[in-house]
Amino acid sequence: MIFSRNTFKNNGVRHKKISTFYKKNAGSGLINFLMIIRPEKKKDYKAIQEINELAFGGRAEVVLIEALRKSDSFIPELCLVAVQKGEVIGHILFSPIVIKSKERVVSALALAPMAVHPKFQNKGVGSKLVYQGLEDCQRLGHKIIVVIGHPEYYPRFGFLPARAKGLDVAFPVPDEAFMVLELVPGSLDVTQGEIIYPPAFQEAS
Ligand SMILES: CC(C)(COP(=O)(O)OP(=O)(O)OC[C@H]1O[C@@H](n2cnc3c(N)ncnc32)[C@H](O)[C@@H]1OP(=O)(O)O)[C@@H](O)C(=O)NCCC(=O)NCCS
Asked: Which numbered atom of ligand 1 lies nearest the CA of 117?
């Protein structure tokens, strides 16, 4: 096991095992009670497309998701949907990346993209997707997760500024939007360098 039951220390906060932590913190109320998180199925594709178009107001993320699904960089277990009463209301995807330095190349994951249907935002759906996703990443043995996203959102899950941890990317990203989470504390002590995204990210941009 990567985390023991209560030993994940990150961002100055002592977390319990991720599953325990998210159950306590990822929103509350009927929507969470009725919602399940599971890997996407083909029958979900249309709903996932609609959610991403509505949430982002464009098609760039849909193009990225479709490119990733067709590529070697697709991990079906890490492409999750939130389902409430049979309706897909949120989606999250983790893809393999590498961290390249002069000495070594280390595998990691990128969280991208994620979206919640606008009707269901701010009800804990996104948080539940992130925590379940992180738990699944952990279960599959992944150690480092990178995200480029809202600096007000991801720190609540333990993400920290990535450049301060010795990471960089080859394109311009504000420091505060480029974040990383060590699922295994200390992983970045020996792993620093440039993040390389799979080709699907370039094709879709
Ligand atoms: C960002 C997003 C995935 C969050 O999902 P969600 O289900 O709405 O979020 P939760 O209910 O778990 O969390 C709500 C919290 O997130 C914050 N939040 C929601 N959207 C945010 C945004 N765009 N930027 C910063 N914080 C945001 C809310 O203010 C709220 O904060 P609080 O708990 O301090 O009150 C969702 O709002 C969304 O799909 N946005 C449009 C697409 C997008 O921006 N995707 C992420 C790209 S990095």
From this structure: 39
- List 92's β-bridge partners, or say none: 80, 114
Amino acid identity at 156? R
Query: Which H or E element spans position 105?
Result: strand 105-116
Give CATH superfamily name and number for 8-204: Gcn5-related N-acetyltransferase (GNAT) (3.40.630.30)
CA angle at 148 for the pair 146 and 154, rounded to the nearest 5°: 80
Q: What is the pLDDT along the chain (205 residues), one digit of tens a residue?
A: 222 323 333 443 334 455 555 555 555 555 566 899 999 999 999 999 999 999 999 999 999 999 999 999 999 999 999 999 999 999 999 999 999 999 999 999 999 999 999 999 999 999 999 999 999 999 999 999 999 999 999 999 999 999 999 999 999 999 999 999 999 999 999 899 999 999 999 877 7
DSSP E strands in 117-161: the ranges are 144-148, 160-161
Specify the residue with its C-alpha closest to ligand 1, atom 46.
Answer: 114
Burial of 33 (0-12, 13-18, 19+ CB in 10 A): exposed
122 Cα to the center of ligand 1, angstroms:
6
Closest CA to ligand 1's atom 43: 115
